[in-house]
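Data availability (excerpt). The following record was deposited with the supplementary files.
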Amino acid sequence: MGTPFISLLEPSKLDDYDRTKPHDQQPCPVPKVFRDAMSVREAVFVDEQRMPLEFEYDNDDPRSCHWVVYASVSKVVELEQVDPDSGLILRPRRSETHTLPIGTMRIVPFPHPPHPQPDGWYEDYKLDRATTFHDGQEPYVKVGRLAVLPAYRGRHMAGQLWVAARRWLETHPRYFDPSVTEKGMDALNAEQASEIPHWGGLVCAHAQEAVIKTYERWGFKVDEGMGRWYEEGVPHVGMFLRLNTKDVPVQV
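Predicted structure:
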């Protein structure tokens, strides 16, 4: 595997995406980086974890930022041919190198559905609630859809994705804040500037229980007040991290 590199796709129009079809059957207008992200998500969540394909794409995808990590992979396309009598090589082995998407992650901007209820299923509730690390009102961004192909796990690919996403968040702290010029104060339900939603560095993760330790290594803490709930039958917990958006050094 060659040196991996990471691509970012900012919020994009995905009207042509057909959630009933896999990534390699999507129309050309769908951005390639997003199709690559879906190739990883399908391999991990659909093929490996047996979640329905039509549930993998959701309404958060068009408004999210997506990171995809790629690797340069060499593949043998012709085997070496050797003369059986002389032992001389008649034709050397030939390989080709191609770029393979091996991991992905997304950041979903606010607003979000309210926190799921403990021991329940993730659904939309009318009112949010305060939890251990969230007052039930402060805007936060949500990291999710973290997936790495099985063959590339244990090589810090997930950590590299988070480093890229975290650095971007820390250097674009106002990116997701709503524009008063575009929406107007009435649409934001604000009478004065202090009431305009403003991201203050709070990041949430709805983490599968199997990857809690991964998020803990990145500084996230389990929000005990959120309890444990199920998404597509898989147990999840809420985790939070507060970023300092003022030039904080980042480590994998």
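Summary of structural features: Residues 12 and 62 are 5 Å apart (CA to CA).
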